[in-house]
Amino acid sequence: MSEHRVHPGLSPRHKQSIGQGVQYTVLVGIALALFLAADWASLREQFLNLEIAEQLFPELITVALVNTVIYTASGYVVGFVLGLVLAVMQLSSVAANRWLSKVYVEVFRGLPAILVFLVLAFGIPTAFPGFQYPMGTYGTVAIGLGLVAAAYLAETFRAGIQAVPKGQMEAARSLGMGYTRAMVTVVIPQAIRIVIPPLTNEFILLAKDSSLVYVMGVTLATAELTKFGSDMATRLSNSTPLIVAGAAYLLITIPLSLIVRRLEARQLKAR
Length: 271
Description:
This protein has one domain (50-270): MetI-like fold, CATH 1.10.3720.10. The chain is mainly alpha-helical. It is flat and about 75 Å long. The model has no long low-confidence stretch (mean pLDDT 85). Helix content is 78%, strand content 0%. It is a multi-pass membrane protein. Residues 65-260 form the ABC transmembrane type-1 domain. It comes from Salininema proteolyticum. InterPro entries: AA_ABC_transptr_permease_3TM, ArtM/GltK/GlnP/TcyL/YhdX-like, MetI-like, MetI-like_sf. Its main location: membrane.
């Protein structure tokens, strides 16, 4: 009798490797086809024109980028403080505090940020003639971004406070601290350390939300990156300023994203 060798079938891991290889090959083929079919000369002229890009400097950095950072930082400070207050109110034993905080969070998380800016920039001054925000445009933007950010930060802070072991509050109270002092000096500092990564993520989102400043009709001196790029694109009849302005946002978001990843990795190691 002749012996027949039995050939085992492919293992699941081998099949998965083959499937992934096919997918990568197809994706590379599609990308290569698009690359070869694109009109790169027109793309460079309309979106990557170096001569036009040179005309954006130094104002792109000294004005637009600086304003974006100022708007983001000031709005974040307002949102941080208000969000922390709202989080404490949500955990309060007083029903009215919990109700007010929940209503605020739901309303401002549900409203488009652009609508908040429109109400602040035009609605309130119309309702109260002669009213002016402190620091003009900068104050208006800080309040607008802060009101929106506070709704999201409140939920982040609430989760962080609830993640702190209850024994921390009990230990502080046993040492004679009142509830408020224990919350401020013991619980909240620990909660903030726990939620540092999502807090940093919110700063990144706020940097992008600062682009909504354009609805306020800001001047060149108070324009942020998106408004500056849009105005320059219209003036020069070319889309390169928008691409360069978009790239400038990466100077803010990429370093912060790297920080978030490092912090998250550190927290995982600590666990």
